[in-house]
Amino acid sequence: MPPSQARRNEAAQAALPAPHRPSTAISPGPSFDCAKARSMPEKMICSDAELARLDRELGWVYARAKNAAADGAAFRRQNSEEWRRREATCRDRECLLRWYANRHDQLMNILQGQEPAPSTVSR
């Protein structure tokens, strides 16, 4: 690879938010304390590196969307509703993967100034 291309790759990598940077370190857990995990979904997230990574990334997007939300009370209500939906419906890894993808899309819509899409997660 030419040196100029390598420098561009390094610059692009440095511009990525921390959760997206590859790491050789041991992968940290999710955005919450696994010692306090009580529900089945929380325990699955704590025991699965990919789900933990998705949880950390969603936490980062959530913080940005919370700051961008036009109506803070509506944002909190919708967030609580989505969390309860996950807790009530997700009993396997595939459901959690769908939930994280759907919730990510909802939060990105908020960041783009759009209304969040309704949840499509089901059992």
Automatic annotation (TrEMBL):
Taxonomic superkingdom: Bacteria
GO cellular component terms, semicolon-separated: extracellular region
Region of interest called Disordered, as start-end residue ranges on this chain: 1-32
Alphabetical keyword list: Plasmid
InterPro entries to which the protein is assigned, alphabetical: Lysozyme_Inhibitor_LprI (IPR052755)
Name of the protein in question: Lysozyme inhibitor LprI N-terminal domain-containing protein
